[in-house]
C-alpha cells in the first residue's frame, strides 16, 4: 500500500514523463537520464517506486528524461550468471543508444543497474557519471530542494534499513540511504548485520530468476527474521538466527505495528516483502523504498 | 668445535629445503593466466601497511583479533632472539647480544612475557577449535582430516617452541648460579621455573640448557619447512597477497576481452579483430577457454590467494548461502584450488588433498589425475548457490577474492558447456528476446508512467 498524502488533497498535475527521443526531436539533451531498469518498468511493486521517484524529479524541477522503449536490460543478471557474451551484447546496445544521445549523467533506483553502468560499461566505451537514487535524494535533501515535510509524518515509527549488496559492499555506499532516512525524523534501528556486514537478501547474482539450491532455509527468511527481531526489540532472538527456522518466543519490547523495513533495491524489495508475508506480518510491517518514503513525507503523491 | 659445524650444516640444509619447496610453490602460482598487476604503488603500499602489517580487517571480531595479535607480535619480536641463536650457533658464542646491556635486559624480559602470552593465546585457539561444539567456522566438510590436524599441529609446535625457550633460560639461570657467574638479561618468567630444576648436577643443567637451545632452533627450522605444506604459509604469503589486492570496486566484475572483440565485430562488420596470439614457432596457440575449468585457467593472483589462505573460515561464516545450509563454502573453493594445483603440478613435502564424498554431494571420482577443479573438486551446485554479495570478499583479512573464481567457473559452465540451470537459460532468452530478464513485452516498458500525477506544491 502506498502511503497516502495529506487528506486535504491539493491540486494535482498529470505528468508526461519525457523521453530522451522526444527531447532529441526538439534538439535538447536532458541534464540527467533516469535509468528506470527492468524491475522499475515491469515489476508491479517496483513500478510504484519508479513513480514515486519520477514525482520527486518533477517536484524539484529536474531536467530529466527516460529512454522509454529504447532502454534494455543492462545485462547484470547475465554477467553475474556467467553469460558474458549476452552481457556485452546488452551493454554495447545500451552504450550505443546513450552515446548517440550524448548522455553524460545517469540516475537509477536500481543498485544492480547502477553498479553495472558505473563500473562495467567504461571498459566497453560507456563513460557516464552514474548516481544511485539514494545519493541523489541525499543531495536534494542537503540542498533543501526536498524539505521532507508537508506529507505523512514518520515521527516515532520504527524503521530499519536493509543494505543492498550492490550499493554497499560493491560500491561502498552506506551513509547516503541512512542520511535520507534520518531526514524522516523516524526511530531508526540498525540490524546487527548492517553496512559492510549486511546480509544479502538472497536475490543477487541472478538468484532472482532461479529456485535456491537445496538448503535448510531461504536467505530472505533469515534476513526478514533479523529485521523483524530488530524492529520488535527482541535482541535475544537474533542469536538464534543461524540457519534454522526460529519461532518468535521472546516478549516484544516494541509492537511491530507500523514498523518499516526500508530498502533501496528492487530485488531486496521483492525478497523482504516475501519474507514479511512468509512470517505473516504483512498487516503490521511494510517494506518501502527510500523514494516512496520521501515522496510521501513530502506530500507529493496524488 | 663440533657444535658450530653441525649447526652450520643444519642451517644450510633447512634453508636449502625451504628454498626448494618455495620454488615449487612459485612454479604452481605461475601456471595461472597472466594478469597485469603493476602500478598504483602508493595505494598498494598503504593497503599493505594497513591490512597486512596493521591487521585492520582482523579487528572486525575483537576476541580472535587480540589473540592473533599476541601471536603475531610475538612472532616478530621473538625472532630477534633467533638472530642471536644463529650467531651463537655459528660462532660458538653464548648470548652474543649481551653487549646491548639494559636493552638486552628489556629484550629478554619482553620475550619471556610474550612467550607466556603466546601459550595462553594458543590455548584459547585450541579450545575454540576443539571444544564441543567448536566455533562454527572451524567446522564444515572441508575442515576434516588433514586441514583439522594441520591447524592443531601448528598450535602444538608454537607451544613447544615457547616452552623450549623458557626452559633454556631457566637452565641457564641455574647454571650461572651454580658457577657463581652473572647471567646477562632479565628473566621474569624463567626465574621462577629455575627453582623447579635440580640444583645439584652441573652436567645435567648444561644438558638441559643445550637441549632447550637445540629444541628451540631445530623446532624453528622444522616449522619453517612445515610451512609450505600448511595453511600456516599465510605468515609469508599474506603480505604479497595484500600487495596485489584488486583495487577496483568490489562490484566490478572482470571484462572478457576476447568476447568484446567478437561482439564489436558483430555490431560493426568493419571492426578488425586482433590476430590470435601465436607461439614461439609462429603457429597459432590453442584458444584459451572462456572462464575456468582447471587451475591453469585461473589468474596467477587467484593461485597466490590459495597459498595465502589460512582457512580461518570468516568468508564461509558470513556467506548467506552457507549460513542457510547450502553446499557453497567460499573457503572450500580456495582450499580446493590449492589442493588441485598441487595434485596436478608440484606438491610440497606433506600433501593430503581433501577428497569429498557423499557429504559434499560429489560423484565418486575414479581418475584423480584428470579430475579438474570444476566438477572434480567444486560442484556446479556450489557455484549456483552464490548470490555474488561480496560478503566473503569483504570478510577476508588478507583480501582473498573467492567470488572471482566462482564467477569464472560459472562462465565456463555457461559459455563452454551451456550448462546453466534451466531457469537461468529462460532468463537469458528473455533478455535476448525482450530486453528484460522477465517475459514482458518491450512495448510495455513505459506503462509505469501512465496516469501519473504529482501533487502541486510550492517548491521550497
- Specify which chain pair forms the largest interface: A-B, 97 and 78 residues
The count of DSSP E runs of length 2 or more, i.e. the number of strands of chain B, is 1
Strand and helix order of chain B: HHHHHHHHHHHHHHHHHHE
The structural class of chain A is alpha/beta
Helix content of chain A: 25-40%
Cα distance spanning the termini of chain B:
92 Å
Describe this structure in words.
- The complex is a heterodimer of chains A (302) and B (460).
- Chain A is of the alpha/beta class and 302 residues long.
- Chain A has 2 domains: 20-138, Rossmann fold; 148-298, no CATH class.
- Helix content of chain A is 39%, strand content 11%.
- Chain A contains 12 helices and 9 strands.
- Chain A has helices spanning 20-25, 38-42, 44-59, 76-80, 84-101, 111-120, 133-142, 175-182, 219-232, 235-238, 266-278, 290-298, and strands spanning 12-14, 32-35, 64-65, 105-108, 129-132, 158-161, 187-189, 260-263, 286-289.
- The longest helix of chain A is centred in the first third of the chain and has 18 residues, at 84-101.
- Chain A is globular.
- Chain B has 460 residues and is mainly alpha-helical.
- Chain B has 2 domains: 2-27 and 61-229; 31-55 and 291-438, Fumarate Reductase Iron-sulfur Protein, Chain B, domain 2.
- In chain B, 57% of the residues lie in helices and 1% in strands.
- Chain B is built from 18 helices and 1 strand.
- Chain B has helices at residues 2-29, 41-53, 62-91, 102-130, 145-178, 190-194, 202-226, 234-243, 257-267, 300-308, 314-318, 320-323, 330-344, 373-377, 380-384, 391-395, 402-416, 422-434, and one strand at 453-455.
- The longest helix of chain B is centred in the middle third of the chain and has 34 residues, at 145-178.
- Classes of the chains: A alpha/beta (302), B mainly alpha (460).
- The interface between A and B is large, with 97 and 78 residues.
Amino acid at each position: 500500500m502506498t502511503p497516502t498524502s495529506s487528506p486535504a488533497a491539493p491540486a494535482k498535475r498529470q505528468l508526461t514523463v519525457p523521453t530522451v527521443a522526444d527531447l532529441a526531436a526538439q534538439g535538447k539533451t536532458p541534464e540527467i537520464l533516469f535509468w528506470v531498469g527492468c524491475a522499475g518498468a515491469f515489476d508491479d511493486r517496483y513500478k510504484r517506486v519508479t513513480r514515486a521517484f519520477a514525482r520527486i524529479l518533477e517536484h524539484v524541477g529536474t531536467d530529466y528524461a527516460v529512454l522509454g522503449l529504447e532502454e534494455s536490460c543492462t545485462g547484470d543478471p547475465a554477467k553475474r550468471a556467467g553469460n558474458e557474451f549476452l552481457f556485452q551484447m546488452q551493454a554495447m546496445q545500451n552504450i550505443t543508444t546513450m552515446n548517440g544521445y550524448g548522455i553524460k549523467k545517469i540516475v537509477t533506483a536500481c543498485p544492480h543497474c547502477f553498479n553495472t553502468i558505473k563500473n562495467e560499461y567504461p571498459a566497453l566505451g560507456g563513460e557516464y557519471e552514474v548516481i544511485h537514487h539514494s545519493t541523489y535524494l541525499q543531495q536534494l535533501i542537503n540542498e533543501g530542494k526536498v524539505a521532507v515535510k508537508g506529507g505523512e509524518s514518520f515521527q516515532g515509527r520504527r524503521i530499519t534499513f536493509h543494505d543492498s549488496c550492490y550499493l554497499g559492499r560493491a560500491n561502498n555506499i552506506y551513509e547516503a540511504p541512512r542520511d535520507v532516512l534520518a531526514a524522516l525524523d523516524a526511530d531508526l534501528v540498525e540490524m546487527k548485520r548492517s553496512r559492510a556486514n549486511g546480509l544479502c537478501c538472497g536475490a543477487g547474482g541472478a538468484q532472482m530468476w532461479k529456485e535456491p539450491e537445496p538448503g535448510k532455509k531461504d536467505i530472505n527468511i533469515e534476513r526478514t527474521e533479523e529485521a523483524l527481531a530488530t524492529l520488535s526489540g527482541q535482541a535475544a532472538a537474533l542469536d538464534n538466527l543461524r540457519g534454522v527456522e526460529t519461532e518468535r518466543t521472546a516478549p516484544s519490547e516494541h509492537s511491530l505495528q507500523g514498523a518499516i523495513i526500508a530498502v533501496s533495491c528492487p530485488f531486496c524489495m521483492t525478497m523482504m516483502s516475501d519474507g514479511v508475508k512468509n512470517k505473516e506480518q504483512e498487516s503490521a510491517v511494510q517494506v518501502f523504498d527510500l523514494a516512496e518514503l520521501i515522496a510521501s513525507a513530502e506530500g507529493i503523491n496524488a | 668445535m663440533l657444535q658450530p659445524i653441525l649447526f652450520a650444516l643444519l642451517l644450510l640444509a633447512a634453508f636449502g629445503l625451504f628454498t626448494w619447496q618455495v620454488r615449487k610453490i612459485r612454479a604452481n602460482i605461475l601456471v595461472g593466466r597472466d594478469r597485469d598487476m603493476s602500478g598504483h604503488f602508493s595505494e598498494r603500499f598503504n593497503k599493505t601497511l594497513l591490512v597486512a602489517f596493521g591487521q585492520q580487517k582482523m579487528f572486525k571480531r575483537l576476541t580472535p583479533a587480540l589473540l592473533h595479535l599476541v601471536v603475531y607480535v610475538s612472532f616478530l619480536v621473538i625472532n630477534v632472539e633467533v638472530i642471536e641463536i644463529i650467531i651463537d650457533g655459528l660462532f660458538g658464542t653464548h648470548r652474543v647480544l649481551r653487549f646491548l646491556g639494559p636493552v638486552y635486559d628489556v629484550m629478554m624480559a619482553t620475550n619471556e612475557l610474550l612467550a607466556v602470552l603466546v601459550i595462553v593465546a594458543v590455548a584459547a585457539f585450541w579450545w575454540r577449535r576443539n571444544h564441543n561444539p567448536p566455533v562454527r567456522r572451524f567446522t564444515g566438510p572441508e575442515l576434516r582430516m588433514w586441514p583439522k590436524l594441520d591447524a592443531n599441529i601448528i598450535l602444538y609446535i608454537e607451544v613447544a617452541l615457547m616452552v623450549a625457550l623458557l626452559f633454556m633460560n631457566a637452565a641457564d639461570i641455574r647454571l650461572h648460579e651454580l658457577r657463581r657467574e652473572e647471567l646477562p638479561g632479565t628473566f621474569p618468567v624463567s626465574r621462577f621455573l629455575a627453582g623447579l630444576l635440580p640444583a645439584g648436577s652441573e652436567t645435567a643443567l648444561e644438558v638441559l640448557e643445550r637441549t632447550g637451545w637445540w629444541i628451540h632452533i631445530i623446532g624453528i627450522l622444522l616449522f619453517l619447512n612445515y610451512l609450505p605444506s600448511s595453511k600456516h604459509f599465510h605468515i609469508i604469503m599474506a603480505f604479497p597477497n595484500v600487495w596485489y589486492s584488486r583495487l577496483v570496486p568490489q562490484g566490478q566484475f572482470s571484462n572478457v576481452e576476447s568476447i568484446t572483440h567478437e561482439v564489436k565485430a558483430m555490431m560493426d562488420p568493419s571492426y578488425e579483430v586482433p590476430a590470435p596470439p601465436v607461439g614461439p614457432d609462429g603457429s597459432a596457440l590453442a584458444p584459451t577457454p572462456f572462464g575456468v575449468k582447471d587451475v591453469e585457467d585461473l589468474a596467477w593472483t587467484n593461485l597466490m590467494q590459495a597459498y595465502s589462505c589460512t582457512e580461518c573460515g570468516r568468508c564461509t561464516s558470513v556467506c548467506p548461502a552457507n549460513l542457510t545450509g547450502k553446499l557453497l563454502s567460499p573457503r572450500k573453493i580456495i582450499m580446493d584450488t590449492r589442493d588441485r594445483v598441487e595434485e596436478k603440478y608440484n606438491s610440497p613435502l606433506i600433501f593430503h588433498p581433501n577428497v569429498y564424498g557423499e557429504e559434499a554431494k560429489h560423484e565418486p571420482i575414479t581418475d584423480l589425475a584428470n579430475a579438474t577443479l570444476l566438477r572434480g573438486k567444486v560442484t556446479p551446485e556450489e557455484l549456483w548457490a552464490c548470490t555474488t554479495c561480496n560478503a566473503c570478499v569483504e570478510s577476508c583479512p588478507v583480501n582473498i577474492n573467492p567470488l572471482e573464481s566462482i564467477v569464472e567457473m560459472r562462465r565456463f559452465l555457461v559459455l563452454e558447456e551451456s550448462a546453466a540451470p534451466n531457469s537461468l537459460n529462460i532468463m537469458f532468452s528473455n533478455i535476448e528476446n525482450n530486453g528484460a530478464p522477465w517475459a514482458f513485452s518491450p512495448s510495455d516498458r513505459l506503462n509505469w508512467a501512465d496516469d501519473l500525477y504529482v501533487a502541486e506544491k510550492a517548491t521550497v
